[in-house]
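User: Can you model how zinc ion sits in this protein?
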Amino acid sequence: MLFLGLESSCDETAVAIVEDGRRVVAQRLISQVEVHSRFGGVVPEVAARRHLEVINDLVAEVFAEAAVDPRSLAGIACTTGPGLIGTLLVGLSCAKALAWAYDVPLLSVDHIFAHVCANYIDTTLEPPFVALVVSGGHTQIMHFESYRKATIIGQTLDDASGEAYDKVARLLGLGYPGGPAVDKAAARGNPRAFRFPEGVVSGSDFSFSGLKTAVLRTVENLRGTDLPVDDLAASFQDAVNRVLFRKTIAVARSKGVSKVVLAGGVAANSDLRKRFESLADIEFYRPAPALCTDNAVMVAAAAFYSGEPVPLSVSAYSRQR
Ligand code: KG4
Ligand code: ZN
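Assistant: Here's the modeled complex, given as structure tokens:
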């Protein structure tokens, strides 16, 4: 079964066709990083207009490369939320038009589920598993009992981990997007140079605002000196990843689950991946780095496993439901 997936929840416009949720047939992606970097973050209205300019061309290119008749698709899937409402509506309007024109079912895909489904590409992963979803907007530990049924076990009470990476990167003058820049700087730094707090939250929840403030205070105290950017990045990254790793493993063990998967933009972080790779008793899955950040391959994979057939009147939603 072939599904077309469309993604426009933030600043990536992406289109893909995936077979049976596991094999990529064709894909195209345009990132808007350069458009937004001078603003230090995504400007929603600018992002929506940019999606509109390129999405039809990407669809045409994917159909041409896959050489499939659109009428033979099992469904056309689109991220309907959570995300920026204006940008989501561009992808959704395009998906509706295609579904109507080719008389193919329209499927709604949740962005969080889609991130997790990136782990099905070219693997034999099956639930049950515990997923750590770490992106610019979300940080949560989820227990997937089946392809469709997931329970949130823990989540951040304030900033998302990706948001913390982006804010600290800005503080250190590393630019936008911050995650990859911190990742790179941290590789040259000493993670034990500064002892930053993990955040004092019991159970499986997280808090990153105290850590962010601790980095800010340290930077302020060092003002006037040559800022040890690499050491600060490494020490911050160590504090975030330490708690993400420890709490995720604790949930997997308490649930008696032997598989752990990473998902979302921060899943591309090299130190975070290394921590999970070191485990002997847990099977560990993480998407290829390009499939960690927003893309349409994960949407087309999610269509197969957890897509919801919806009417053409369906709306987008900005917050997780
Ligand atoms: O999943 P994603 O592409 O978009 C959202 O759904 O939010 O995640 C984007 C986030 C950004 O905060 C970005 O800084 C972070 O993922 N990120 C990283 C890395 N690559 C992207 N954070 C840490 N290390 C990375 N290598
Ligand atoms: Zn995302």
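A couple of observations from the model: The pocket of zinc ion (ligand 2) is lined by residues 111, 115, 135, 264, 294 (CB under 6 Å). Residues 18 and 24 are 5 Å apart (CA to CA).
User: Helpful, thanks.
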